[in-house]
Design a protein that fits this description.
CATH topology of the domain at 483-594: Dna Ligase, domain 1
Number of strands: 35
Radius of gyration: 26 Å
Shape: globular
Largest sheet: 9 strands, mixed
Keywords: Hydrolase
Structural class: alpha+beta
Domain Acetophenone carboxylase-like C-terminal: 501-671
EC number: 3.5.2.14
Strand content: 25-35%
Number of helices: 17
Helix content: 25-40%
CATH architecture of the domain at 483-594: 2-Layer Sandwich
Domain Hydantoinase/oxoprolinase N-terminal: 2-175
Enzyme class: hydrolase
């Protein structure tokens, strides 16, 4: 049995897939700061036997939380003499160009913990100045006296030759074996000194926390009898072993959210949908990503805490290209200083949660607004909902300010939340040159099905897909993953001057390294699949385009095919191409998948339209532009494959509700997914 658990800001989700392809789910409260306890709770709540778990896959927010809440280890940096201020200097460009009070991000390592040592390589990786062993030892002793818990080592041009970094790490481990240490080449072999140093520092910053968390989780799993293979979800949409995740935990920075994006891509393949907008609304945030022609977009240009006013902190590891905003079911509605209604980014979280949870929450949230408008039923909550308290909170905090009814205020909260989410969806589609009308929207998370149909209408999306187990779909996505490692090596060469023997040697070394790593993880060579890319650009450009490259030995024909693909992709991304202009390779990117066997998804046994049998009740629901409408409410668990429902309607399941607007039509497919024609 394959089991996946996903820790969210409000709930910890579990999905299991048995040998017959049948799916089961469970949810329990997230348990900060002891997140591993929520995992054990949800396993027990699911009723499955721990001994039956052959594969356990886990997604976690521990890493991103440690970074955003500044709860990592006391970290130091050892770097090349003359370059201690690289984190301070950062980049000259800034997001808020005309803000004269703009401040650069405060480094995670203060200046007194950034130490220099004598060593120097040139851009080719050739040694100019040997590493001073004595200076490294002196630096380590100084940092030990400062009470440092983790050290990052980042030397100039180590992406080309990690010789000095490896030696420095050996010295550190020899004189101070207890300290956590990261060398920049261990997390990225890509150039760009600031980004590479930032990544090494952030990996060291979270390394002690990640090791402690994973060790605790592993211990708890063993105590309840889970002895199968254990994996952690990575930000590149693949998995890795518990042991590897402790060495490079920065690869888990978006561990949970990307699993749902990958799951949407897999579901798209099953349903024959190559173009997908994946849309996930949880309790705290809304996430979205675009899947073009079946391909999940992966980037190494990821930054945490970046917004319109802040440059953020770069993390140069492969991360699924995802937009995340602070709008979820628990997002708080509030009035700003100008008297305008806002929703998020503050969240009520799991504790106290929305007013409807009855745990002491006093601020109205999106969930409370959906209750007042009839989109959610009080009967669908685990606790008894005090509707008077919910209405009172919206009345006192929102409605009275505008002199409107509670119901109008609730609808206003939903509209503002939808507007925020619509902006995020436009960022990954319209703003990047994609036409949303050519895509289908896969909506999941507890809130995704509730808001998706309104947003699809605004975007012009014709089809919305609500998957089985929608509220725990990110965990479902983990069940579909293979192991994955990305190896990126900066290799700057003009195409017309390529040495093919040297190029093939570089690919061979990357593949040999991948096979060696997988061998250590127990994956045989016949289970490893390689996918190659080259980051390319026109000579004189700054940024590159990722181009698929044929596997095997590269000859002149393969190089010309690569260049042709680059021209076409450049035109797609930037609306123009320069046929005949000189091109160059910047990075070689090898993605190595460790393929694991996965059972097929079971089809529904019951076929035939039984919407009438699934009807639960008729209740008034408040719709934008339509007012209150008596709306039929259906139980999703009862619906057969082939059932058809005309909107307006609501389809309820254990932890989510799908809101279907007038003139929209829903059909249940053979797997139990809800396929909705938006009427656009």
């Amino acid at each position: 049995m394959r089991v996946a658990t996903d820790i969210g800001g409000t709930f910890t989700d579990l999905v299991y897939l048995d040998e017959n392809g049948r799916i089961g789910t469970a949810k329990s409260d997230t348990t900060p700061p002891n997140f591993e306890q929520g995992v054990i709770d949800v396993i027990k709540k699911s009723g499955i036997s721990p001994e039956a778990i052959t594969t356990f896959i886990h997604g976690t927010t521990v890493i991103i939380n440690a970074l955003t809440e500044r709860k990592g280890a006391k970290t130091a940096l050892i770097t090349t003499k003359g370059f201690r201020d690289v984190l301070e200097i950062a980049r000259g460009n800034r997001p808020d160009l005309f803000n004269v009070r703009y401040k650069k991000p405060t480094p995670f390592v203060p200046r007194y913990l950034r130490l220099e040592v004598s060593e120097r390589l040139n851009y080719k990786g050739e040694v100019i100045t040997e590493l001073s062993v004595e200076e490294v030892k002196a630096a380590v002793e100084q940092l030990r006296n400062e009470g440092v818990e983790a050290i990052a080592v980042s030397f100039l041009h180590s992406y080309a030759n990690p010789l000095h970094e490896k030696l420095a790490v050996e010295i550190i481990k020899e004189v101070w074996p207890e300290v956590a240490v990261t060398a920049s080449h261990e997390v990225t072999r890509e150039w760009r000194e600031y980004e590479r140093t930032s990544t090494a520092v952030l990996n060291s910053y979270v390394k002690p926390i990640a090791s402690s968390y994973i060790d605790k989780l592993d211990k708890h799993l063993q105590e309840i009898g889970v002895t199968g293979n254990k994996y952690i979800m990575q930000s590149n949409s693949g998995t890795t072993t518990f042991e590897q995740s402790k060495e490079t935990p920065i690869n888990m920075v978006e561990s949970g959210p990307v699993a749902g994006i990958f799951g949407a891509a897999i579901l798209g393949k099953i349903l024959g949908e190559k173009n997908i907008i994946a849309f996930d609304i949880g309790g705290t945030t809304a996430k979205c990503s675009l899947i073009d022609n079946g391909e999940v977009k992966v980037t190494t240009e990821y930054k945490i805490e970046r917004d319109d006013r802040n440059a953020g902190y770069p993390i140069k590891v492969p991360v699924v290209d995802i937009v995340e905003i602070g709008n979820g079911g628990g997002s708080i509605a509030w009035i700003d200083d100008a008297g305008s209604l806002k929703v998020g980014p503050q969240s009520a979280g799991a504790m106290p949660g929305p007013v409807a949870y009855g745990r002491g929450g006093e601020n109205p949230t999106t969930t409370d607004a959906n209750l007042v408008t009839g989109r959610l039923s009080p009967e669908n909550f685990q606790n008894t909902v005090n509707m008077d308290a919910v209405k009172q909170a919206i009345d006192e905090k929102i409605a009275k300010h505008f002199g409107i009814s509670v119901e109008e205020a609730a609808l206003g909260i939903i509209r503002i939340a939808n507007s925020n989410m619509l902006n995020a969806l436009k960022l990954i589609s319209v703003r990047k040159g994609y036409d949303p009308r050519e895509f289908s929207l896969v909506a999941f998370g507890g809130g995704g099905p509730m808001h998706a149909l309104a947003l699809a209408k605004e975007l012009g999306v014709k089809k919305v897909i609500i998957p089985v187990a929608a509220s725990v779909f990110s965990a479902w996505g983990m069940l579909m993953t293979d192991l994955r490692h990305d190896y990126i090596q900066t290799y700057i060469r003009r195409v017309n001057e390529l040495n093919l023997d040297e190029l093939n040697s570089e690919w061979y070394q990357l593949e040999e390294g991948a096979l060696k790593q997988y061998s250590q993880e127990g994956i045989t060579e016949d289970k490893v699949l390689f996918v190659r890319y080259a980051d390319m650009r026109y000579v004189g450009q700054e940024h590159a385009v990722k181009v698929p490259v044929p596997n095997g030995v590269m000859d002149e024909a393969a190089v010309q095919e690569m260049v042709s693909r680059f021209h076409n992709l450049h035109e797609k991304h930037y609306t123009f191409k320069l046929d005949g202009a000189p091109t160059e390779i910047v990075n070689l990117h090898l993605t190595a998948f460790g393929v694991v066997q996965k059972p097929e998804i079971a089809r529904l046994e019951n076929v035939g339209d039984n919407a009438g049998e699934a009807l639960k009740e008729v209740r008034p629901v408040l719709f934008e532009d339509h007012g209150w409408i008596d709306t039929k409410v259906y139980s999703r668990e009862v619906l057969n494959a082939g059932s058809v429902i005309e909107g307006p309607a609501i389809v309820e399941e254990q932890s989510s509700s799908t809101v279907i607007y007038p003139r929209q039509t829903l059909v249940v497919d053979e797997y139990g997914n809800l396929i909705i024609n938006t009427g656009v």
